[in-house]
Amino acid sequence: MSSDAQEANADRRKYEFRKVIEELTEYEGSGTQLVTIYIPEDRQISDVVAHVTQEHSEASNIKSKQTRTAVQDALTSIKDRLRYYDTFPPDNGIVIFSGAIDTGGGQTDMVTRTLESPPQPVQSFRYHCDSEFLTEPLEHMLEDSGLFGLIVLDRREANVGWLKGKRVVPVKSASSLVPGKQRKGGQSAQRFARLRLEAIDNFYQEVAGMANDLFVDKRHEIDGILVGGPSPTKDEFLDGDYLHHELQDKVLGKFDVAYTDESGLKDLVDAGQEALSDQEIVQDKNDMEEFFEKLNTGQEATYGFEQTRRNLIMGSVDRLLISEDLRSDVIVYECPNGHEEYEVVDARHSTPDHECSECGDEAAVEEREDVIEHLMAIAEQRGTETRFISTDFEKGEQLLDAFGGIAGILRYSTGV
Ligand SMILES: [Zn+2]
To answer: Where in or outside the cell (predicted)?
Structure first.
């Protein structure tokens, strides 16, 4: 799979997760009976089954018969789900939610949801039984899923690694043969200085090579690169254009960091906190700026469901822009005369009656589907990238309010 396709998949999964989380946060149990389990990828499934079996037998001490039955049913349902897995959970782990939710009037409904391979690894095993599902850890994973490259260096030592969400992952290190400032007796000062500069240059090349090996393949997924170290090392390194030019463009900033060992990578993340938080919506902002520019100056922009869909099918859409907060369904109607029409409705609303706009006959519902799933499926077939746009800035809000949450930046003008 290409890295673009992987990125598209990751976006789609994030959206699906967000939808499930929104659904789950609306549920409540009448007692402490909603069970959530977070399972890290290195936890043996048989361990988890043993844990759930233990909880099941302890639940027999619950005084309220209704809560007791509800908890035990939830645990049974979780055990059933666990049977689908072999020894270990898939990458990044699994989260399972199960319980009898209140549906009003003393009625309950059994709900079980499994989320596999969240965007960040599940950090620790958690068993949680409450009147609500535990969704916060997953919500954090969705918020903090950026990927950043980290480089710290001085003239003696360097480390490169990743910032994945909130996790710092050291990957490679190097140490230099750069001689100290004190020259040995008998060496000419000039010659010593030249050798020392050469050694520094060699070391910067080595560090850049290390960073290039790690980052260049991932350059389309990386949200930015932070460089840290004492002055003037980091400045010399960046100003000397040692990094691959595409990586150089990704550098968000350079920061003073005292240590250049693995702990220096963590210091770098602390020092660059402001640059990191700004970065989260920088891409969203750039996309929206480009959209408005094209909308104002030319025809290489599209918006609204119908127009965007037509352009997507033509293959003319470079980037599909979807508001992160869009929650709508598309309903496909067909009248007795074979006219097909689409209508977008709020996901919470029931399906309205529809009169064919061409012949006036009553149209029947062919299909009802999540509008984002519908558009993303076409986008994927046409090699169009989908971008989810935050509503945390003005133009992002406008996408949702003024353009129905759907727009596209076109590869060429289509006049559609
Ligand atoms: Zn018709």
So the answer is: Cytoplasm
